[in-house]
Amino acid sequence: MKILVLNSGSSSIKYQLIAMPGAGVIAKGIVEKIGLPQGAVRHQNQGEKALKLERRIANHTEGIEAILHILTDKEKGCIGSYKEIDAVGHRVVHGGEDFSGSVRIDEAVIESLRHNAVLAPLHNPANIAGIEAIKEILPDVPQAGVFDTAFHQSIPDYAYLYALPYSYYKEHKIRRYGFHGTSHRYVSAQAATFLKKDIKDLKLISCHLGNGSSIAAIRYGKSIDTSMGMTPNEGLIMGTRTGDVDAGIIQYILENEDLTPSGLNQLINKKSGLLGISGISPDMRELEASADSGDRRAILALQMFVYRLLKYIGAYTFALGGVDAIIFTGGIGENSHYIRGKIMEGLAFLGIRFENEKNKSIRSKTAKLNEDSSGIDLLVIPTDEERVIAMDTYEIVK
Ligand code: AMP
Predict the structure, then answer these.
(1) Number of domains, the chain
(2) What pLDDT score was predicted for residue 315?
(3) Of 169, 161, 92, which Cα lies nearest the Cα of 385?
(4) Which of 30, 241, 277, 285 is the pocket-test mutation for ligand 1 (most atoms within 8 Å of CB)?
(5) Confidence (pLDDT) at 268
(6) What is the mean pLDDT of each run of 10 residues along the chain (398 residues)?
(7) Does the CB atom of residue 211 touch ligand 1 within 6 A?
(8) What is residue 2's predicted lDDT score, i.e. its pLDDT?
(9) Is the Cα torsion angle 183, 47, 10, 5 positive or negative in sign?
(10) Is residue 12 part of a domain?
(11) Domain for residue 285, yes or no?
C-alpha cells in the first residue's frame, strides 16, 4: 500500500510517499511559497538527486496538483499513475478536544476541523485546504487525520487548565492542548523498544528540540503534561518564540509600544526566543558558532535555552514522581552535543555517569548517552512524524 503523507502549512506543503507496511520512503519533497509570485516544488525520489521546479502556485489545490504531477511524471516521478496512491494521511495541527487519536476523515471530521480553526488560525485552514484538494482530485482515495494535539488529550484537568476564571475554559476553550504529540508519542514508544521495557512501566521525559521546542511528561505511555499550551508559544525558549512569559508583560507592551494584536503576535512568535536574545539568528548551529567565537549575546541565548529546559526537566521529574529516561529529539536534540552536554552537566548531581565522548559523536541516531548503571537513562531518538502518519493511516484504512 502506498500512502501519501501531507503536511500542509499556510504557504507550503511537505509531502512523502511511503510504502506500507515497511514504511520505506519512495519520494519526498515540498511545495513552497504558495500564493506568492515565485513558487517552487522541490522533489526527491529515494536514492536520487533532488530537483527543483520553479513555477507560480496559486493555492493548495494547485500545490497538490503539482505534487501529484511530479510523482507521476514519466522522467522525474516514481509512480505510473494516481491510481497507485492508496490513501492520504494528513498532519493536522489542532484537533482541540475533539480528537484523542488519529481518524479517518469524513464530512463530520472536516466540520470539526473548521470549528477548531479558531484555535489554530494559521494551520487548520491550510490542513482543511489540503484535505479538500485531495477530495477534489482523488475523490475515491481514503484520507486520515493525525493530530499534533491528540497525544496530549490524556493530560488531566489540573494540568491543562490555566488559572483564569473557569468560564474562559467553558466559553472559549482556553486550556493547554500541547503540540508535537506525534513526535512525543513516537519517540517514547521507540525509547521503550530500545530499553527493552514495556512502555506501561516507564516514566519518560521527551524533549523535542527544534525550531519549535516542547517537552512532555509521559507516564506509562500517556502524556500527563507538556510545555506548549493553547498555542505553540508557551514553554521552552524557541528559535523565534518567547516560551513562558509573565502575562502582565503583554499588557505592558500593548500599552507602551502601540502594537496591534497581529504586531504582538509577530513579536512573541517571530522576533523573540533565540533570535530576539542573540540578535543574530534563530538557528542553533549559527548560535553555537557565534558563541564559540565569543559573542556574549549568543552565549546568553544558549544559557537561557539550557536553563529553561533544565527547569522543565526538574519540574516534570516531580510531576511524574520520578523518571526512568530522558529523550532528546528534533533537529537540536538529535544533533547538538553542546546542548545535550550542558543538560548532562545540569543532571550530574544525580550521580548519572555520562559518556561525554559518545555524546560528541552522536548525530541523528538512536543512542544511550550514559553508562548502564546510572538509574536514569539519557537517550537520543530521531523523530519521524511522517512515518507515524503513514503507520496510523495504514491502520485506519487497511
Ligand atoms: P527542526 O525544526 O527539528 O528541523 O530543527 C532545526 C534546529 O536544529 C535548528 O536550530 C538547527 O540549527 C538545529 N540543528 C540541526 N543540526 C544541528 C547540529 N548539527 N548542531 C546543532 N544544531 C543543529
Answers:
(1) 2
(2) 98
(3) 92
(4) 285
(5) 95
(6) 94 96 97 93 96 94 95 95 96 95 97 90 88 94 98 98 98 97 98 98 98 97 98 96 96 92 93 98 97 98 98 98 97 98 94 93 96 90 97 96
(7) yes
(8) 98
(9) negative
(10) yes
(11) yes
* Half-sphere exposure in the Cβ direction for 89 (13 Å, CA): 29
Is residue 124 located within the same domain as residue 233?
A: no
Ligand 1 contact, 360 CB (< 6 A): no
51 assigned to some structural domain: yes
Full residue range of the structural domain in which residue 114 is found: 2-147
What CATH number corresponds to the domain at position 357?
Answer: 3.30.420.40
Instruction: Give whole-number Cα distances, 340 to 33, 99, 156, 344, in Å.
Output: 34, 33, 30, 6
The verdict on 323 and 232 lying in the same domain is yes
Q: Which of 148, 225, 377, 384 is catalytic?
A: 148
Q: Indicate if ligand 1 lies below 6 Å from the C-beta of 285.
A: yes
Domain final residue pick, 147, 174, 208:
147
pLDDT at position 375, please?
87
Task: Kindly state if the Cβ of 335 falls inside 6 Å of ligand 1.
Answer: yes
Q: For residue 159, is it within any domain? A: no
Q: Is 148 among the residues known to form the active site?
A: yes
Torsional sign, CA 309, 310, 313, 319:
negative
Q: How far is the CA of 302 from the centre of ligand 1 (A)?
A: 13
Q: Which residue has the cell 493548495?
A: 60
What's the gap in Å between 295 CA and the centre of ligand 1? 19
pLDDT attached to residue 241:
95
Q: Which atom of ligand 1 is nearest to the CA of 287?
A: 12
